[in-house]
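Bug: token stream looks shifted between consecutive jobs. Job 1:
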Amino acid sequence: MKKSTGIIIASVAVICAAAAGFAIYSHSLNAKMEQLINVDTVYHGISVNGIDVGGLSGDDAYALLEKELNGGFDSMYINVVKDEESWKYTYSDFDGKYDLREAVDEAYDYGREGSTKERYKLVKKLETEPLNVECGFSYSKVKVNDAMLAINKEVSKEAVNSELSRENGRFVITDDQEGYEMDVPKTSAMVCTAIESMESKDVELCGEVIEPEITREENEKSTSLIGTYYTTYSSGNAGRNENLRVGCLNIDGTVVKPGETFSMNEGLGPQTYENGYRNAAVIVNGKIEDGLAGGVCQVTSTLYNAVIRAELEVVQRSNHSLTVAYVPLGLDAAVAGDYKDFKFKNDTDYPVYIEAYTTGSKVVCNVYGYEVHSSGRKVEFESVKVGTIPKPDEIVTEDPELPEGTREVTYTGKEGLKIDTYKKVFENGSLVSRSYFSSSTYRATADEVTVGTGKAASSTESGQPELPSSINSGNTEESGGSIFG
């Protein structure tokens, strides 16, 4: 019995000793774990973008990374290249930088959540499995685009056409210049790709050369006189003659590019007093009236005849409502408001130059361009009357101020005409073709008379009533009437 009791007492003593030993061990282990994890620095075994930051405080880790990672962006560059020119930018110019704060926080926060044991395991794991925190990189795409826009201002330029003019009867031709158009979006995208590669690189500027529409070579081939015509006028109408001069001045020197259509209304400009036009006779609704810019139709008709002799394509042409005297029937061209215009197209491969001026008593229009026809070719235009239009019934106006039985012709009307125009082509003096070219219809106008409806004057009244003189308004174009309508 005593022996058993001894054994029990000995066993209890052993257990108590073991328990005491384990308690001492556990306390020592906890102290060791606490010592490992409870530090105010980044745990050893942690790096950011390959740079060891273990053992550093958050601020010290940030300072180290700022120096090692962001410090190099002042020397890293993107070089934008165009031919012999280049524009060099550092990564810092585009605010290129690593986003360090988030990476440092992530490195510092590793292993700081959970129980002591859980945290200890994470920290111990770093001894065999180090942790590398990847740091994000950013830059300003806005600054990239702004930089490319600045380059664009330097390199992009419009092409310069060769200019053709005449001075003192001779042509003056200037040089042409190529232009350049930079592709800003495409170049910006390529610069962004280069930045994101995290390497210093050359980037070829994107763009294209812009060729001039008219070259010096083309203008040099456009100096042949391919069509010419003149009309005459009297010197007795100062307003109309000024309109002829101003009209010629406004279209003189016009260059019509290949494929382009010339509009006489646009060439003449707004027909206003401010633009130099003056009052002169015009046709309105078949009658002669005083109006602004009378005479410009003579300039138009003169140019029309030069153009058809140059054998350029006529796009739009209207004859006058009444016949005119300064060109043959069927070869006139009228302009009026925005509903009558003369237009022709330069259907050649070279520029066409218009020369127009007044000299003495002539309106002269010359058309210069590239002569595609043989030197022996000549064209003429033949007017053929194909019909007449009778005058409408006379227009009678009663005047009670005139004695009954009085009849005065106040306007002499005109018979209308239908004219066909034919184009005749000669080669070395021989007629080779005669073909229909155009039709023109000139309206008929009625006679206008005034008849008296008043009673005969009493014999006791002194004197005789004064009668108006007869007015015969014929074709006033010979004396300066401009035609509208």
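Job 2, same session, no restart:
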Amino acid sequence: MAWNIGANDVANAMGTSVGSGALSLKQAVIVAGLLEFSGAFFLGSHVTETVRKGMIDPHIFASTPEILMFGMLSALLAAGVWLQIATYFGWPVSTTHSIVGAVVGFAVVGGGWASVNWGKIGQIVASWVVSPLMSGILAFLIFQYIKTKILNVRDSVESLQKRAPYLTGAVFFVMTLVMVFKGMKNLHLDLTLYESIGIGLLVAVVAGYISHFLIARISRNKVRARFLENQKLEGQENLQVARQLQKVLTRLERIDVSPTPQVTHRLSNIHGDVATLIEDIESEVYTQIEDDYGQDLLYVERVFGYLQILSACFVAFAHGANDVANSIGPLASVVSILRNGTVASTVGVPFWLLALGGFGIVIGLATWGWRVIETVGKKITELTPTRGFAAEFGAATTIVLASRAGLPISTTHTLVGAVLGVGLARGVVSLDLNVVKNIVISWLITVPAGAVLAIFFFELIRFVF
């Protein structure tokens, strides 16, 4: 289950960063892996509900704790299998909804229809609409602001430098609230809303002040080079040839013997020809891209790439702290029943379980995460750093608002909805509607698929044991 959370859920957080070119796939795996494991191990809850999200009443199984134990095992198997199927096809689905559907499936068989909190199920169904709609609208508005105030003005660099401190402050404000409301809620800090906002504003002011100086120091030439390196451009193969030829030049320069004059002359000609070829290749590709983007827009996109990476890191850390319970929560219940022989409303989570969950998430991201990253980052719509930033920031803002309002949302649905909103800002034609259709279908069948698989595994386990 943890492996598939990493392969499916974590990939959502980093999908826009990879799709926009702000991070390479390798960089995303390393960054997200470190942050997810840190969040899961250091801030993951040491106490978890016996049944996640209050789907069923665990006391119904007080007289038959082994039934609850078999049910938790079947729920883990069912959710893991469904997520494995979804990840194989590159469908970004909710891991929380997967485990909820699985728990409901075994509960109906093991405890009857009355054991399920159907009101909670209704809230989850509502989240299928609430999550993507809220984030989609916010991401649409954020991108429209960026496009109107920065991208489509006479001097986009000057406009960005004026607004960058405020944008950076807004990012750190929202991300601080994400950490307080989602990533650090397991610490039970009991901060009031005003205290949380106060901390967020303090962090925002400091971050905005620092960014004012940092952004002014960012070299346009370095930005241009880094941006071009990370983009999947027409002519990318030629750039790779140029990089390989550069290695040839280095080897030629390292020849430490003295050849005859004739050989020296021929080596000099070869060196000059290779150097000229490298310059011609780079000039051709860079000229083509600068014609497409413009020198100023390269600078703007790269700066937004940094902001996007920051927001993705916050989301990854908070996700690790909060959603690792989807994998280790049921297992903690099983361990508790085996040790104590009784059913409790909440159970302790030992450190080794938190480490196991965090490790599983990292391995899942590293091995299969690219499948969902490709869907979210590339297949729904074409992303650039500005579009990716709008999507990531819109999703994070939705998480904050929904957390405080008590609305049931899915991180997966929220982020995909934000990507759709950014795509719609450029018109419906910019979206791949077939990909969108498949994603929506996978959302609708996640809960029933988890339930059916859980019933199968529950009956199988009960028959064997």
